[in-house]
Amino acid sequence: MSDYKNVLVCVYGEEFSSEETFDQACEFALKEDAKLYITTIVDPKPYASMSRFDKKIVERVKQQAFEQLQAFKQKAEEKGIGEVETILDVGTPKVRIARHIVPNYKIDLIIAGETIGRIAERAITGSISKGIAKRAACDVMIVNNSGEQTTKA
Fold first, then answer.
1. pLDDT per residue as tens digits for the range 121-131
2. pLDDT tens across 52-107, in order?
3. How confident is the model at residue 13 (pLDDT cuts 50, 70, 90)?
4. Each residue of 77-96: b (16+ CB within 10 Å) or e?
5. Contact 143, 129 (CB under 8 A)
6. Which DSSP helix (H) or strand (E) runs through 141?
7. How far apart are CA 112 and CA 16, in angstroms?
8. Radius of gyration of the chain (CA)
9. Taking the CB of residue 51, how many other CB atoms lie within 10 A of it?
10. Which residue intervals define the domain UspA in the entry (predicted)?
């Protein structure tokens, strides 16, 4: 068994297959007796054009993300995970996770769902989960849509 003590799972939004990823992260955290961090990064860029007409759109998205994080936290606690913490952040997900969350929370392992967003968008910006794996200074497990895992150590 490895020494993973702080496991981060990335959830929320169309970019990640949240439920399957979350379930696998919970199983892993239980097996390793690790603290589970659940994060959502709200990327304000997709809302930039809408914010001209609706100044509070990003705040509403953040509120929705907060509520979903709390629901995931409750599910994790119901599964028997002793230590669960949520992290809501704003910015570019692959950068915020790798450069801010990983070092500040001493993350040992990131579990992220395979990007399932729009094909054209992925071609331009790249996969978020692969971007996290490329930048993170810890192990990364990417869970694809069929539940299979790819790990970058």
1. 444 445 778 78
2. 677 788 888 899 999 999 999 999 999 999 999 999 999 988 899 999 999 999 99
3. low
4. eeeebeebebbbbeebbbeb
5. no
6. strand 139-143
7. 7
8. 15
9. 13
10. 4-143
> Distance between CA atoms of 153 and 141, rounded to whole angstroms?
8
Q: At 90, which amino acid appears?
A: V
Fold of 6-152: Rossmann fold (3.40.50)
Identify the pLDDT of residue 134.
Answer: 85
Q: Could you tell me how far CA 16 lies from the centroid of its own chain?
A: 8
Q: Which long-range contacts (CB under 8 A, 24 or more apart) does 122-131 make?
A: 126/94, 128/15, 128/16, 128/93, 128/94, 129/10, 129/15, 129/16, 131/93, 131/94, 131/95, 131/98
Given a contact cutoff of 8 angstroms between Cβ atoms, the answer to whether 7 and 34 are in contact is yes
Q: What residues pair up with 5 in beta bridges, in sequence order?
A: none
Q: Which two tokens stand for residue 45?
A: 């860029």
Q: What distance in Å separates the CA atoms of residue 95 and residue 13, rounded to the nearest whole number?
A: 17
